[in-house]
Every structure is written in structure tokens, then in C-alpha cells.
Amino acid sequence: MNKDLILLGHGSGGKLSHQLLDDLIIPTLSGIPLAGQNDAAVVEHGGQRLAFTTDSYVVDPIFFPGGNIGSLAVNGTVNDLAMMGARPLFISAGLIVEEGFSRTELAGILASMRGAADAAGVRIVTGDTKVVPRGKADRIFINTSGIGAVEHDFAINGANARAGDVVIINGTIGDHGIAVMAEREGLDLRTAIRSDCAALNDLVAEIIAAGGDAVHVLRDPTRGGVATTLKEIALQSDKTITLREETLPLNGAVKGVCSILGLDPLYVANEGKLLAVVAPEAAERVLTRIKGHRLGRDAAIIGHVAEGGGRVQMETAVGGMRAVEMLAGEQLPRIC
Fold first, then answer.
1. Are the beta carbons of 179 and 67 closer than 8 angstroms?
2. Mapping DSSP to helix (H, G, I), strand (E, B) and coil, where does residue 205 land?
3. Would you tell me which CATH number, out of the four given (3.30.1330.10, 3.20.20.150, 3.30.470.30, 3.90.78.10), belongs to the domain 39-150?
4. Residue 177 C-alpha from the chain's centroid
5. How confident is the model at residue 264 (pLDDT cuts 50, 70, 90)?
6. Whole-angstrom distance, CA of residue 238 vs CA of residue 159
7. Contact by Cβ (8 Å): 141, 96
8. Which positions fall inside the PurM-like N-terminal domain (predicted)?
9. What is residue 22's DSSP assignment?
């Protein structure tokens, strides 16, 4: 393999992505240490703590059960800000549109973006539009940036997991990835699997209100799924995270599709889920608050944190223990 070439797997969020970031992109552009590599940057200006993030969306297909590329872009940006404990405020939207794209479809995408922004309480305040020749893009790509206010003094970041902490997820895993994959491949699943695409900022506000400084880490397990996100947290915090397979909430239809296709739902993308790593004394209080939210009815405690360097492992349903590592690439490319 020619090591000079960028592969599709370099955009997967898995091991190849991290190698590209660690070997080339981050050292060249910023030198930000591992502990500071989170869903958004937190910066200070004029005495105010601000969260700032950017992301690009290339999902295929652009319309899928439960959303489209427009709602995905807005909700994904809102969620990256919320994972730093910030209140999302403003978003930019950059559109790269291929010549020949449908104005009707564009109108639908834009309406979804506006609807998602209004629902999340954020404003789209600036943007840019470019049109490229036919065949030079795949219909439409969207880039977004977001700014939010951090209105507390809590340290919520991927490097803050502590021994004894518990890991909570707000619902079933893998729904988004399987919904997009099924639509892309034209699979007749004979069941309604929908993306979980949603803004999580209201839920995060509830979590912080319930847990305060006991909330140590918040992350949304998008590309690479729950497994990759927890591995990132374990590496940043230099801790070991142990999952219990029997506690993982999983939609029965998603579980069935994954079983048939040989996919591991731990690595399938989510767009309306978060992982909260909280101190044990606050775990039940936070879990109760999450379960009371419309996006947290299937919430569960799925693991715990212990001392040890950067490992994730899982107690299987049959009583064994297996290592959980990042995949080299991604099971399902172009999922967000």
C-alpha cells in the first residue's frame, strides 16, 4: 500500500483517522495535546468561556429515514458544542453544491436546517455557497461551525474520567448508521429503523443541572460508534473502561440487521446519543434525570472506569472479557 495516499478509511473516525491526525494534521496546524482533543475547543475571550467547533457532512444518501444532510449538519454541530457543557448559540453554514443538483431538494435541506436550528434554539448567522462542475462533487456537501457559551466552571472533557466513575448512555446504539446504510443499499428490512438524529443540548442542560461537577466527560459517539469514542476517552484520561454487554441498550431490529450483515453495533454511528461519565455518587441522580427526558427513555449505565492505561474491555454475555479496540477503518463509510 502506498503510504502517501489518503484512503477512505482516513475519514472514518477509527485508527487510520487518528493516525492521520496525530502524524500530520494536528502537529502541523496546532500541536494540541491529546488531552485537549475534544468535540469542540474551549477558549476564553473577554472573561467569557466559549466553545467553538467545526464539522463537514458528506452523508450518502442525503435523505434517510429520520433526517437528511441538513438536519444532521445542524444537530451534529449543536451536539459537539453541548458535549463541552456549552449552550449553543450561533452556527455558520457552508454549502458545496454540484452543478445539476435539484433546487427542490436544496429547498428541503435548507428548510430542515432552519427547523433543526429553531428547535435547538440556535441561529444560523453566516455562511457561504459554492457550485462546482458536474462530477466534481457528490450532489451536496455541508460544512458548519458553531459557537456556544460555557456558563459554568466545571471541567467537562475527554481527559477528565476518573477511577470509580460510571458510564451512562441515553439510549439505543447504532440506529443512525443502520438507517443510513439500509437506505443507501436499498434494503427492504420489513421494519422501521430510523436515524436517531437529534439535538442534545436540552438533555445536556438536564445532566449538568442534576450532576454539577460530578459530570466529568460528555461525548457523542458518532463516527466509529460507542467503542471508538470510549477508546478515545480511555486514552485521553489514561484509564481503563469496562463495559457490560448485557446492559447495552439495543433496538431489536438494529441488532438483527447487524447480526445478519456481520456488523458490530458498538462501532455503528449514532447522531442522537451521548456518553456521560459521572462520579458514582451522582450516577443514579443523573440517570433518573436522563430517563425523564424524551431523548433518554432507554438510558442505562453500561460501564465503569478504573485505573489503567488507555484500555477498553467488555464483559460478554457469556461471562468472558474481550478487548475493545478502534477499527482500522469504518464498517459503514460516509455515515455523517
1. no
2. helix
3. 3.30.1330.10
4. 11
5. very high
6. 8
7. yes
8. 38-150
9. I
Residue 257: CA count within 13 A, CB half-sphere: 25
Q: In Å, what is the CA distance from 161 to each residue of 75, 120, 135, 215, 256? A: 25, 28, 46, 9, 33
Rounded Cα distance between 40 and 54, Å, is 8
The residues, any chain, with a CB within 8 Å of residue 23's CB and separated by 6 or more, are none
Q: Which three cell numbers stand for residue 197?
A: 438524529
List the grid coordinates of 223.
Answer: 463516527
Q: What's the rounded Cα separation, in Å, for the pair 52 and 41?
A: 5
Average pLDDT, the chain: 94
**Where exactly are the structural domains of the chain?**
39-150, 166-323
Average pLDDT over residues 184-202: 89
User: β-strands 87-98, 123-132: how paired?
Assistant: parallel
Take residue 146 and report the three cell numbers written for it. Answer: 458553531
Per the DSSP assignment, residues forming a β-bridge with 149 are 50, 87
Q: 98 is written with which cell numbers?
A: 454540484
The per-residue pLDDT for range 276-331, each reduced to its tens digit, is 999 999 999 999 999 999 999 999 999 999 998 899 999 998 989 999 998 876 67
Strand partners, 146: 53, 91
Sequence letter at residue 185: E
- Residue 115 CA to residue 13 CA, distance in Å, equals 28
DSSP 74: H
C-alpha span between 43 and 51 (Å, rounded) = 6
CB neighbour list of residue 324: distance below 8 Å, 6 or more residues apart = 227, 230, 231, 243, 266, 312, 313, 314
Decide if 166 contacts 303 (C-beta within 8 A).
yes
147 touches 306 (CB < 8 A): no
Taking each continuous run of H as one helix and of E as one strand, the counts in the chain are 9, 14
pTM (2 d.p.):
0.95
Could you check whether the bond before residue 27 is cis, i.e. omega within 30 degrees of 0?
Answer: no
Q: Does domain 166-323 have CATH number 3.90.650.10?
A: yes
